[in-house]
Amino acid sequence: MQESTISRRELVKRGAAGATLLSAGSLLNAGSAFGRSAAGLQTVRWISPRGTLQVMDDFNLWVPIKMGYFKQLGINAQLIAGSVSDALASTKFVAQNRADMGYPSPGVLTASIDGGIPVKSVWDVISGQVFDFALPVDSPITSPKDLAGKTISLGSSGWQVIVDPMLVELGIDPKSVKYVTSGAQWTQAAATGKADAALAWEGLRHQLAGQGLKLKYLIGSTWSKQPSNVYSVRAADLNDAKKRDLYTRFLQGVVMGLEFTKANPRAAAQITYGSLPDLRKTLKPQLALDSMLELAHAYGTSHRAGQGWGYNYQAGWANYLKVIHDLGQTKKLLSTSDVITNALQGPANRKANRAKARADAKAFKLNSQFAATKVDPSFTM
């Protein structure tokens, strides 16, 4: 474990490590953006911020891949695992035309824009806080305010830009906290008491339990109003009508994946679980479903509020941008128009074939493993 702090400027200068590219579970090579495949489909390359695709988080992408919705919309969707060691890979790959859509946290997105990486959010996956803190089960910490002066484990030094604003929201000076970078073992550092806490997020809790890690949690959404990870694209692409159309169609597929999940969450979990061979080795079907349900509820935040799926809330972002500027994390006080747009979100929600997704979900035949699983009766999307 190595103590590490790093400035945003240094993060932007760092090169991205290698990344793995997958489409419907198969290894592929990264090709030209918007290239057409032999079947006449346009390629959209989506990159994860986690360094892995072996999680239940991306059910809203695996469902439209496996159900053929992306192909029906003229899209060949390729999923890139990304890099866990380079926090800015999900924006840098997009800016460098090595990917078309990233999934950065608000801190990474704003660090990138402030550092000259020209990207913009087109889809707020969770219109609220997704991040939590994991603690050793015997930790005396009972409130997030108790994190002042403690040691927090991160997977990458770049994750500090995620945590600092959360601490400020709690009235904690980030300088009072000691960050340690633990790579892929960052949650184990908390579980074994080598750190007082570790950054976590919704959807991860059940997966960590399935891996045998004993942790308790401070759930971010119970005290934080800050935004979470977004789908972002090259800002210049939003000035190109053909590329706006391409991304809108991609987001239509995402909406269909979400509507399918809402209608039959067990079917969505079965599809996603079946796409992830490494995850199946560590997580049983019920825990996989529970993990997905944590996130599915969060993904429905703006939908339940009547704004459709994926809405970027101006007020929440404006407050967040002020906090990070006051922290000195951005040299410029970014405006919401620098960072987010709902120009594609509305059309994608209106044009998506929701009825087909719902009908397909209701007709989907569960296998014996997922037929035996149970959905919490209080679950909503």
Task: Provide structural commentary.
By secondary structure, the chain is α/β, with parallel strands linked by helices. Helix content is 40%, strand content 14%. The chain has 2 domains: 2-6 and 132-222, Periplasmic binding protein-like II (D-Maltodextrin-Binding Protein, domain 2), CATH 3.40.190.10; 18-127 and 229-371, 3-Layer(aba) Sandwich (D-Maltodextrin-Binding Protein, domain 2), CATH 3.40.190.10. The chain has helices at 8-13, 59-66, 69-72, 89-95, 106-114, 160-169, 186-191, 204-210, 241-263, 265-274, 277-280, 285-299, 301-304, 314-326, 336-339, 345-351, 354-363, 368-371; strands at residues 2-3, 21-23, 26-27, 42-47, 75-80, 101-102, 119-124, 131-136, 151-154, 178-181, 197-201, 215-218, 230-234. Strands 1-10-9-11-8-12 form a 6-stranded mixed sheet. A 5-stranded mixed sheet has the order 3-2-5-4-6. The chain has a two-stranded antiparallel ribbon with strand order 7-13. The longest helix is centred in the middle third of the chain and has 23 residues, at 241-263. The chain starts with a strand and ends in a 10-residue tail after the last helix. Mean pLDDT is 89; it is low at 1-34.
